[in-house]
Amino acid sequence: MLVAFTISSNMFFVPLPKLFSSLFDFLITSIFTHGLGAVIGISVRDELWVARDILDITGIAVVSLNPKPIEAIILIFVLTFMRARTPKLRFGSVSVQSLTTNSSASSPSFTMKLNTQITVKNTNFGKFKFGDSTATIFYKGIPIGEAAIGKGKAKARSTKKVDVSVSLSSKKVTSGNLNLASDLKSGKLRLTSHETATTEQSRELRRQKQKKWLLYGIAFVIFQTGIIALFSLTVMKVRNPKFRVRSATFDTFDVVQTTNPSFNLKTNVALGIKNTNFGPYKYDNSTMYFYYGEAEVGSVVIPKSKAQFRRTKKITVALDLASTNLVGNTQLASDMNSGIVPLSSRSKLSGKVELMLIFKKKKSVGMDCTMEVNILTKELQNVKCK
């Protein structure tokens, strides 16, 4: 004679708190959990056969109202490491320690004692704790025995094995029950079981889950605040570009060092506009002036252009440096006799730094450089810019 029974188990999780949804543009729309069940069979020959295993995995749906790159990264993290999956409940092995049946129509009965090993497979990236609980066995809705399951813990991504023993008896089944007699005569007895937990245990589990999600929320707030602060202090921070004279060459170098000293230099000046921002710097037309003391000796127009982000824009401009405005300047004769003519240059660029193709910030950068023209070597030397 073959006796078979079915064991099914229902598990649920407390819904995720929505406390932080308005802060992060995340909306947790649903958390749903389906049942976990298994159907197994026991024969009087202590042979175990598995007819079917059914598992519905917990799902988490997350919708972003305003998707951003940082939220996409966090979403992937939530859907992998932080996603709570339903542990898998399995019967590793079942043995019948004792079995007595009476299939007579007048007083059908049975008694049996089962030894089983239940495995709890935890596929989460965190430990799964379960408390003391009981599994009540029913026949046609009538309780016929209870199995005590002690509290334990399944480590992250591991399987916990629990040994359970249960005694079943038909004492509470009405004597002369025709269904019981018929089932015993057919050789199969179908039983059901539901796992139940104490009220105190349910409260403790609920408290632990609420505490866990609160800690996750606080950690998420700190993480995103740090990312935003880092982003604001690096990518979104607008810095002043640097405008400098880099070097110069001379096409013609006409110098007179007699009683009426003078100079006329056709000069090619190399300029550099260094943009350290994470966006291009677009500047308008400007003019650069060269001075000997406070007297202007030359000027040139700098055409509008653009310095790419994190790059140095290099341009070369041609101008004439002449001493026309220095007639009668006694200091010029002294400097030319020494072989060194000190000059200075000033200019101002006005433009905008563009960030993320959306934000534009006005920035003006000035040039204030000093330099020396070496008459003997015909070179520009000692260029210093503030």
UniProtKB/TrEMBL annotation:
The keyword Membrane applies. The chain crosses the membrane at residues 20-42, 213-236. Residues 118-185, 272-370 form the Late embryogenesis abundant protein LEA-2 subgroup domain. Gene3D superfamilies: 2.60.40.1820. It holds the Pfam family LEA_2. The keyword Transmembrane applies. Keywords: Membrane, Transmembrane, Transmembrane helix. InterPro entries: Lea14-like_2, LEA_2. It comes from the Eukaryota. This is Late embryogenesis abundant protein LEA-2 subgroup domain-containing protein. It comes from Rhododendron williamsianum.
